[in-house]
């Protein structure tokens, strides 16, 4: 079964051993249609809430298979793109809009209850989620004409939503910070500090929050020191990169065998990990030859591209770049401090971790057009020097 082989390539021991995954709460731009879990206008008690056929027939069986073939615990977290349209000010899943009313009103309470319903329904179907974000890209909800599912939250409304509704609703249902991780923001790097500042400095909101999530699409417009800022100010909250993809808004969307896209993944992961990110989550695990399906025609690239008519799929360099991290930096690995004596112009990026089995792992990227000599000095284990080929990724492990 080719679909099973694809999941094994990501999650199994002979694959790249993914240990975390993001589960959309209802529809996204990469759904084949627009949908939510409760389309009955005014149903504040959510009596008509039900999972979609996509969940029952596709997502849940696929998730269960991934969990079954993985040798690790796989942390799963949910993210919602939009509320049902009757709860949103523009009465559409897509387009600029926020929840109706104010943050003390019934729409915000119902939106929190909606999240709990989702978690409970997945639990009933045998899937326990590790956490959730407060919502995908909340700033998109303020962009006029936004083409796909979105729901706007300012830092202030996100703060109030968490402390007045989401946090208490989760706690009442048994999803506490001890066993369930809520992440705020889930948006671009430039807006990360202001969301963290406004939400996390409020003790009544912060007590429900475990982490801060970010996406990669504007990482070139803000310094990674923003991550340092958040870590230093709120060291008890983890940082997690929760979405990235190549091919967005450019042509070609799908670029077979594009090594530069693999390098871009590795570069971004290394920079995030070296600035306190505790992990990095890709967007779509598989897309078709056009970079879909996507009802919103937001075609992009993916580490694996499926050719369903030929019953085959192709692994892009992004897949192998991800494997250097997901396969070797196993859960609970800890980043080690390291220094470099290379010249200021040397473009090599690297990170060093220690695994729970006391194995040292070094992942390095040489994105330049020239090979370079690379020497590693470990005071406990000695020195190794090797020729680092141009445009290559290397992983070294030692005990």
UniProtKB/TrEMBL annotation:
<comment type="pathway">
    <text>Lipid metabolism; sphingolipid metabolism.</text>
</comment>
<dbReference type="GO" id="GO:0006066">
    <property type="term" value="P:alcohol metabolic process"/>
</dbReference>
<dbReference type="InterPro" id="IPR033452">
    <property type="entry name" value="GH30_C"/>
</dbReference>
<dbReference type="GO" id="GO:0051246">
    <property type="term" value="P:regulation of protein metabolic process"/>
</dbReference>
<dbReference type="GO" id="GO:0006680">
    <property type="term" value="P:glucosylceramide catabolic process"/>
</dbReference>
<dbReference type="Pfam" id="PF17189">
    <property type="entry name" value="Glyco_hydro_30C"/>
</dbReference>
<keyword id="KW-0746">Sphingolipid metabolism</keyword>
<comment type="pathway">
    <text>Sphingolipid metabolism.</text>
</comment>
<dbReference type="InterPro" id="IPR017853">
    <property type="entry name" value="GH"/>
</dbReference>
<dbReference type="InterPro" id="IPR033453">
    <property type="entry name" value="Glyco_hydro_30_TIM-barrel"/>
</dbReference>
<feature type="domain" description="Glycosyl hydrolase family 30 TIM-barrel">
    <location>
        <begin position="2"/>
        <end position="329"/>
    </location>
</feature>
<keyword id="KW-0443">Lipid metabolism</keyword>
<dbReference type="GO" id="GO:0010605">
    <property type="term" value="P:negative regulation of macromolecule metabolic process"/>
</dbReference>
<dbReference type="InterPro" id="IPR001139">
    <property type="entry name" value="Glyco_hydro_30"/>
</dbReference>
<dbReference type="GO" id="GO:0004348">
    <property type="term" value="F:glucosylceramidase activity"/>
</dbReference>
<dbReference type="GO" id="GO:0006914">
    <property type="term" value="P:autophagy"/>
</dbReference>
<keyword id="KW-0378">Hydrolase</keyword>
<keyword id="KW-0732">Signal</keyword>
<dbReference type="GO" id="GO:0007040">
    <property type="term" value="P:lysosome organization"/>
</dbReference>
<protein>
    <recommendedName>
        <fullName>Glucosylceramidase</fullName>
        <ecNumber>3.2.1.45</ecNumber>
    </recommendedName>
</protein>
<dbReference type="GO" id="GO:0016758">
    <property type="term" value="F:hexosyltransferase activity"/>
</dbReference>
<dbReference type="GO" id="GO:0016241">
    <property type="term" value="P:regulation of macroautophagy"/>
</dbReference>
<comment type="similarity">
    <text>Belongs to the glycosyl hydrolase 30 family.</text>
</comment>
<keyword id="KW-0326">Glycosidase</keyword>
<dbReference type="GO" id="GO:0008202">
    <property type="term" value="P:steroid metabolic process"/>
</dbReference>
<dbReference type="GO" id="GO:0030163">
    <property type="term" value="P:protein catabolic process"/>
</dbReference>
<dbReference type="GO" id="GO:0005764">
    <property type="term" value="C:lysosome"/>
</dbReference>
<feature type="domain" description="Glycosyl hydrolase family 30 beta sandwich">
    <location>
        <begin position="333"/>
        <end position="396"/>
    </location>
</feature>
<dbReference type="GO" id="GO:0032006">
    <property type="term" value="P:regulation of TOR signaling"/>
</dbReference>
<dbReference type="GO" id="GO:0042391">
    <property type="term" value="P:regulation of membrane potential"/>
</dbReference>
<dbReference type="GO" id="GO:0005102">
    <property type="term" value="F:signaling receptor binding"/>
</dbReference>
<dbReference type="Pfam" id="PF02055">
    <property type="entry name" value="Glyco_hydro_30"/>
</dbReference>
<dbReference type="GO" id="GO:0005774">
    <property type="term" value="C:vacuolar membrane"/>
</dbReference>
